[in-house]
Amino acid sequence: MTSTPIAPTEHDAAVPTGDELGDRPVDAQAGRSALARRWALVQQTAEAGMSTAEYAVGTVAACAFAAVLYRVVTGGSIVTGLTDLVDRALATLS
Predict the structure, then answer these.
(1) Would you kindly state where each structural domain of the chain is located, as residue ranges?
(2) What values do phi and psi take at 27, rounded to 5?
(3) pLDDT at 14 (0 to 100)
(4) How far apart are the C-alpha atoms of 61 and 66, rounded to whole Å?
(5) What is the maximum alpha-carbon separation in the chain?
(6) Vertex 68 angle, CA 62 and 71, to 5°
(7) What is the per-residue pLDDT for 88?
(8) Taken in order 62, 63, 66, 68, is the CA torsion positive or negative?
(9) What's the CA gap between 40 and 32, in Å, rounded?
């Protein structure tokens, strides 16, 4: 994932020169570089897990797969084949 730098806006010019208490100056460039470092760190970390939309899509896909699998397994030929397999296995044991 690559990011493009954000262009300065008119709001950047309104950076205060002191904090709310007025006891130390705020360096606007240092604030922006801290934000840039934080943004770079966020971009470097790998995403883990799924978001809500991905959970929804995954759940729908799983339900669709389960429905298809259910139809296949409960079809006549599969039930007959499994019954024959179990009958042969039990005949071998006795």
Answers:
(1) 10-44, 52-93
(2) -85, 110
(3) 52
(4) 9
(5) 92
(6) 140
(7) 93
(8) negative
(9) 12
Q: In this structure, what token pair is assigned to residue 80? A: 């007959």
Both tokens of residue 72?
């296949």
Residues 14-51 have pLDDT tens digits of 555 444 445 555 566 777 788 888 888 877 877 666 67
Distances (CA, A) of 81 to 11, 65, 87: 73, 22, 10
Tokens of 69: 């699998």
Provide the residue count of the chain. 94
Q: What is the rounded distance in angstroms from the CA atom of residue 52 to the CA atom of residue 71?
A: 29
Contact 18, 24 (CB under 8 A): yes
For every residue of 30-74, DSSP letters joined together read: HHHHHHHHHHHHHHHSPP-S--HHHHHHHHHHHHHHHHHHHHHHT
Amino acid at 38: R
